[in-house]
Amino acid sequence: MEHIYSSIDIGSDTIKLVVCQLYKEHLNLLAATSVPAEGIKRGLITEPKSAQASIKKAFDDVQDMLGIQIKKVIASVPNYFAEYTLINGQTAIADNIVTNKDIVAAYKDGIRKNISVNMEFVNIVPIDFKINEKTIMKDPKGFPGQTLEARAMMVTTPKKNVYSVVSLLESMGIEVVDISTSTISDVYSFKNKVIDSSVGALVNIGAGTSTVSIYNRGIPINTSVINQGGLDIDKDLAYAYKISTPEARKIKEQFALAYPKNADVHNVYEVTNFEKKKIKINQLEVSKIVNTSLNKIIERIKEEINELTNNEVKYIIITGGISNLEDIEYLFHRTLGAKVNIGKIKLLGARNNKYSTAIGNIIYFIESLKLKGQEYTMISLDDIDVLTTPNKHLVSTSEDTMLGKVFGYFFGE
Fold it and tell me: What is the pLDDT of residue 43?
């Protein structure tokens, strides 16, 4: 079986769509695109028709790259008001040897005992398993026993966070096979021994919002969404120089430095303002504006980390589009200390941190499949055989609730 997976991250500023192949335990990028987003504000869909047009552009781009239509995706949903609940589920082991069915049954028990009527199940992060009330392990498949107990962190969000994304995609004929949040996905993009053994924070600085998440041994325990991000920097630059926001963003991304001490006063950028006057901006002055704006965001990040945990954090990872800004590591080290690292995506062809959520979706999805002992692919055999022949047919929209879909896929029903 060809193991092909696709993932979409619908942001306020851009739509990110990636397609990867798992081959011999290595993830290979097949296609990645990032297109401007319309109709989305602070991660929430406000104008469905405009958002749909942006999403369609992303899918068209990938089709042009691969020659096939992507019909199934893992989708990110907003983190607003997400809840993290430690669940503990039990089941009798059917044939005295643990199988993936027993693992699923234990998870089901824990989820059904803990899910709130007003919240939607998003996913679970496994912690460990206990056989016969005493033997603890990470993967119990194949071990003998009579009872199985599963501990996991269950992630839920308000129903509207899920349905707004899923209904929009399915109205376009795109089947959502799994959902996640950036809190889950981002950490899978950067997992290492430090994350798996300590308490830390991961911060995704997006365009309209920034998400601050706390993890204990790689397990999410708390999160907060700040209504500040890269667009605030763009607005400050646009106001200072009387230029458009897109022009300000271009200056931020291509010319400014996050750390003014490294800026060159003789390096000049020329732009025409709203008064039709050509003005020259030197790198030092524009970097000071960017630095001031970023420091406001960083102060909020520090406040949120202190609010979310009383424990000492051993690491802080910064990701999101703004983390690609030149010299940003110097600014974060000066303000938050040496424990800060700028995330580095290891997937060749998608090193830009704006893809961290979309890529993390796929990594988490694959890990879930491994635990359940299942195989899955998101493209058909026909698509594999005719990669250069686009298929115009779209899958039909299901009327099931998303909880039913996730249970149906995740639990193999």
Answer: 74
Q: What is the pLDDT of residues 133-158, one digit of tens each?
A: 999 999 999 999 999 999 999 999 99
Note the pLDDT of residue 387: 47
- Distance, in Å, from the CA atom of 10 to the CA atom of 357, rounded to the nearest integer, reads 10
Q: What is the pLDDT of residues 285-339, one digit of tens each?
A: 999 999 999 999 999 999 999 999 999 999 999 999 899 999 999 999 998 999 9
The CATH superfamily holding the domain 192-344 is ATPase, nucleotide binding domain (3.30.420.40)
Position 401 scores a pLDDT of: 36
Strand partners for 158: 119
User: CA–CA separation, 93 vs 99, rounded Å?
Assistant: 8
User: Any residues with CB less than 8 A from the CB of 122 and at least 6 apart, and which?
Assistant: 77, 82, 155, 156, 157, 162, 179, 180, 181, 184, 406
Q: Which residue from 84, 6, 75 is spatially nearest to 43, judged by alpha carbons?
A: 75
pLDDT value for 280: 95
Predicted pLDDT at 58? 96
Predicted model pTM: 0.87
Q: Which two tokens stand for residue 397?
A: 């929209």
Going from N- to C-terminal start, the domains of the chain cover 192-344
Amino acid 24: pLDDT: 84
